Amino acid sequence: MAEARWAGQPEAVQGDGRGCGMDDLTGFAGRCLLAVLFVGGALQKALDPGSAMALLAGKGLPGALIWPALAFDAGAGLALVAGWGLRPLGFALAAYCGFTSWFHLIPDDPWQMSIFVKNWAIAGGCLMLAAGGGGAWRIGHA
Using N-to-C axis directions, what is the helix angle for 66-82 and 22-47, rounded to 10°? Predict the structure, then answer.
């Protein structure tokens, strides 16, 4: 099956299935940048759980939910770097970002609103991974 191309994309930029194209490099770099966000979120929850627990409590949820969220953030970050299960991972991360944006929907606080919007932008990037992005530099890619 022929590989899809963007209009005007030169042959030299195409991923060739062997993991040496520019698409593969940018896919890996993009996954690593997303991973930094999720691993950083896990570290933040581990080092200062009280802040995240307060956000949860403010929405009427138990603070103990921070621990599965921490595990999800850490696991997702590692899976992004490894490129493991990108399609289901992309969908899961998009849903996670959409859900967690709810905690930042505080219209009177511009900082929280910027985080709200950022979460939706990250969800869009995660949907791009689910749609087939991510490059060939990943576990299980033939």
Answer: 160
